[in-house]
């Protein structure tokens, strides 16, 4: 059912005023929320940094152990299922990163593979190049072993 409005311009302006008022309230609420989140994050930052450093140290130790004892742990496979989770050593093909690639990309006119904020090679884009283009630029795809692990019942 259509409602007749005495002055639609004034009503539209009144609705806009309500939107502006609620946007202002929402902006203030979001600002308060951000301050509280920042305070809580700061409160736990030291412990979070400590736990992150411990995890990183354990990950490096686990990788060293698996690489050093691959036959005993992996038994000739890529993946070993352990009581607490899994460890994996897989071969993946990556583009060999070479010195002088930035100059070669510039000379070849392949601007899309250059990050200009720092004028560095955007290797994610170079990874997508066909092998012929990589060869023309003086690099190639090489197989590289990649370590990873999973812990049962936890998202990494």
Explain the overall architecture.
The radius of gyration is 28 Å and the shape is extended. The protein has helices at residues 8-68, 70-74, 101-108, 123-126, 131-136; strands at residues 79-81, 85-95, 114-115, 120-121, 141-151. The longest helix is centred in the first third of the chain and has 61 residues, at 8-68. Strand 1 and strand 2 (85-95) form a beta hairpin. The strands form 2 sheets. Strands 1-2-5 form a 3-stranded antiparallel sheet. It has 2 domains: 7-68; 73-151, no CATH class. With 156 residues, the chain is an alpha+beta fold.
Put the structure in a nutshell:
The chain has 156 residues and is α+β, with helices and mostly antiparallel strands.
User: What is the overall number of helices?
Assistant: 5
Q: Which H/E pattern describes the elements?
A: HHEEHEEHHE
Determine the N-to-C terminus distance. Answer: 55 Å
Structural class assignment: alpha+beta
Could you say how many structural domains there are in total? 2
Number of DSSP E strands:
5
C-alpha-based Rg, rounded: 28 Å
What percentage of residues falls in helices of 4 or more residues? 40-55%
Biggest sheet architecture: 3 strands, antiparallel
Major beta sheet, strand line-up? 1-2-5
Shape: extended
Beta percentage is 15-25%
Average pLDDT number: 89
**Which stretches are low in confidence, meaning pLDDT under 50 for 5 or more residues running?**
none
């Amino acid at each position: 059912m259509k409602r007749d409005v005495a002055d639609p311009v004034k009503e539209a302006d009144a609705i806009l005023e309500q939107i502006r008022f609620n946007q202002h309230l929402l902006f203030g609420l979001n600002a308060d929320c951000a301050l509280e989140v920042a305070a809580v994050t700061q409160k736990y930052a030291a412990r979070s940094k400590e736990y992150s450093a411990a995890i990183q140290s354990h990950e490096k130790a686990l990788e060293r152990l698996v690489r050093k004892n691959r036959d005993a742990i992996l038994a000739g496979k890529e993946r070993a299922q352990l009581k607490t989770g899994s460890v994996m050593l897989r071969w993946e093909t990556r583009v060999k990163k070479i010195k002088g690639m930035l100059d070669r990309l510039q000379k070849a006119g392949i601007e899309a593979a250059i990050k200009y904020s720092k004028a560095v090679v955007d290797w994610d884009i170079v990874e997508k190049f066909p092998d012929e283009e990589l060869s023309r630029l003086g690099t190639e795809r090489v197989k590289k072993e990649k370590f990873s692990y999973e812990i049962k019942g936890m998202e990494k």
